[in-house]
Amino acid sequence: MMRGLYLTACGSLIALIFLCLAWELRLAPIQPGGSWLALKGLPLLAPLFGILNGRRYTYQWASMLILLYFTEGVVRATTETGTGQALAIAETVLALAFFCASVAYARLTRPSSTQKVAPPAGR
Questions:
Q1: N or C: which end of the chain has fewer CB within 10 A?
Q2: Does position 2 have pLDDT exceeding 70, yes or no?
Q3: Is residue 77 a part of any domain in this protein?
């Protein structure tokens, strides 16, 4: 279970980085020849090594970061047509997969689920 969540989070994050770059530089850029919007993939590099190393804290904050990409995907999927719309749907699916995997991973690795707390001493 944990291995599957880890692989889903890693795979979807890496795929989303490549999708952002390919989308704005080659597949369906806003301007011919590419645009500066390709830089939107840079913030995804910040959690990459923490996710690959299985750091719980990184999974927690990256799950909030990924919501920006989910929102962009939903907005562009409803406003664009053709290739841009298909890429936006792919972005939405990848962001949703990462979000679900990272939240589940963080939940399953929380310290309270692995340690029992002794009840307070009674009077």
A1: C
A2: yes
A3: yes
* Cβ atoms of residues 84 and 46 within 8 Å: no
In the numeric block, which tokens belong to residue 47? 């959690």
Residue 123 domain-assigned (yes or no)? no
CA dihedral 85, 88, 90, 92 (to 10 degrees): -140
Q: How confident is the model at residue 33 (pLDDT cuts 50, 70, 90)?
A: confident
Residues 51, 23: Cα–Cα separation, whole Å: 23
Based on the structure, what is the number of domains in the chain? 1
For 7-34, give the DSSP string: HHHHHHHHHHHHHHHHIIIIIS-SSTT-
Contact 99, 63 (CB under 8 A): yes
Contact 19, 94 (CB under 8 A): yes
pTM of the shown model: 0.87
For residues 59 and 106, is the Cβ–Cβ distance under 8 A? yes
**How many C-beta neighbours within 10 Å does residue 93 have?**
16
